[in-house]
Specification:
With 282 residues, this protein is an all-beta fold. The protein is built from no helices and 19 strands. The protein has strands spanning 2-5, 10-13, 26-33, 44-53, 58-60, 67-70, 74-76, 81-84, 95-103, 108-116, 123-126, 167-175, 178-185, 191-196, 201-205, 227-228, 233-234, 256-261, 270-274. Strand 16 (227-228) and strand 17 form a beta hairpin. It is flat.
Length: 282
Amino acid sequence: MKLLHFPGLIFVLFACGSPKIEIANIQAIHIDYNGSQNVNYGSHFAASVIATMIDGKQVDITGHSYLTVTSSSLDFVSDEEAVVLGHPKTFEDHSIVATLTMDDRKESFTTTDSIPLNFHGPIRVVAPGRDGEHGEDGENGGRRIIGRDGRDGERGQDGENGQSGGNYTAHVWRDSNEMRMYIVNDGNGEIWKYKSTNGTEIIVQLHGGDGGNGGDGGDGGNGKDGVITEKKNKSPGDGGNGGDGGNAGSGGDGGSLLVFIQSNDSETVSVELRNTGGMAGK
């Protein structure tokens, strides 16, 4: 399971059965990976977090319940795989940085580590539309103070629509041994700059965001019990109606891409646009 906290993108990784670690005995923590893999924006690569203990023993702590990895540009999507996040604002972004913390609420060890980008593999732009928020559930009806029937449950809120993938314009050219791409968000003017030292493939993911689920309607309240005595004869109250569920949000449209490729590279550059629409909520 992964918990996200914005801003700052704090990724908390944990798993059952974490090995017992004496934090006071940690000498260093680093990210272990093979530098021959593609390490570029959008790349997934094999990696793990390793603690070096005072006695020299190295322990894989990637999925440890005490570990927090804080980074705006690196996410561990599993105990064995990481991904480079974000969108470079300059061609000179050469490394990504993460803060690694082991904390058991009694002791804490914190350090930073950086991974150099080698810009191998394809240029990959990941910019899907934001998913819609789920609607909140309606309040349960409960019993009435006056009267015998239960109150009706409230209606669930509607799910939010997913955001569209957005519209972009890109320019692609070769600079010495690098393929470079300058891409602009036509909606807000934001500019990103990507490059690859050995690739001829460009993959742009502009999927629409998924719609949010509608909230559940609240339960109807119970009616009051009937009373039969020598002096009273009251019928039981009816239960309240359950509230209607909220409507699902619609999925967002896929985005669009207009690409200009320098003429002498037109036969060597492959561009793939992935822009399916988002799924509707439930």
